[in-house]
Specification:
- The chain is of the alpha+beta class.
- The chain has one domain: Alpha-Beta Complex (endopeptidase fold (from Nostoc punctiforme)).
- The protein has 5 helices and 5 strands, in the order ααααββββαβ.
- A 5-stranded antiparallel sheet has the order 4-3-2-1-5, with helices on both faces.
- A hairpin with an 8-residue loop joins strand 3 and strand 4.
- The protein is globular, with a radius of gyration of 16 Å.
- It comes from candidate division WS5 bacterium.
- This is NlpC/P60 domain-containing protein.
- Keywords: Hydrolase, Protease, Thiol protease.
- GO terms for molecular function: cysteine-type peptidase activity.
């Protein structure tokens, strides 16, 4: 049994569902809409999750929403993931069929789904190829934050000092505190990038 995460829901009650009951879990997400990811019609197979495809949401907000959906589905860390679409973001299946993500796979996938941008699928490529590098104090939702000497990890900034990331083998895509994550890696935050 798992308790599905509540994504900024107005309800503080999390129903318990069987971990293999994906239909009930997705219904739970639909009923307990995230304020960051309101539900609307739209979306396309393999594209942005339908409840992230709304007018008025910035590309950065859509990228955060896509990453939140991966976290809500508790997608596991898989090195090189998403294996189903590596090298061709446009061929990715719908999110429920993606087996998992590594850190740069999550950020690359989220930005491609949000804005059609191919920012690469390796941390060093993402940091080097995105020309806009805001100060940490100026981070906006959707910005990428890079950690550790040698650029070993990347997360997507959610806002309010929080990031969403694919942490490590044996873990799942989840939200974390930016400062806590920076303290975990030798070298702390080594860079930022704002895809456009």
């Amino acid at each position: 049994m798992v308790n599905p995460p509540v994504l900024a829901s107005s309800s503080s009650v999390s129903p318990t569902v069987k971990s293999d009951d994906m239909g009930a879990f997705l219904f739970y997400l639909f009923v307990n809409k995230s304020k960051a990811c309101p539900t609307s019609a739209g979306g396309s197979p393999g594209g942005l999750p339908p409840n992230c495809n709304i007018s008025g949401l910035t590309p950065g907000g859509k990228a955060v929403c896509a990453a939140e959906q991966a976290a809500a589905l508790q997608k596991p860390y898989i090195w090189g993931g998403p294996l189903e679409c590596r090298g061709n973001w446009g061929s990715c299946p719908q999110l429920p069929q993606i087996s998992g993500f590594d850190c740069s796979g999550l950020t690359g996938w989220a930005w491609f789904q949000a804005a059609g941008l191919n920012i690469g699928n390796v941390t060093t490529t993402q940091l080097a190829n995105i020309p806009n590098h805001p100060a940490v104090s100026d981070l906006q939702p959707g910005d990428l934050v890079f950690f550790g000497y040698g650029n070993v990890h990347v997360a997507i900034y959610k806002g309010a000092g929080k990031v969403i990331h694919a942490p490590q083998p044996g873990d799942v895509v989840r939200e974390a505190d930016l400062n806590g994550l920076a303290g975990y890696f030798d070298g702390g935050i080594i860079g930022t990038a704002r895809p456009q």
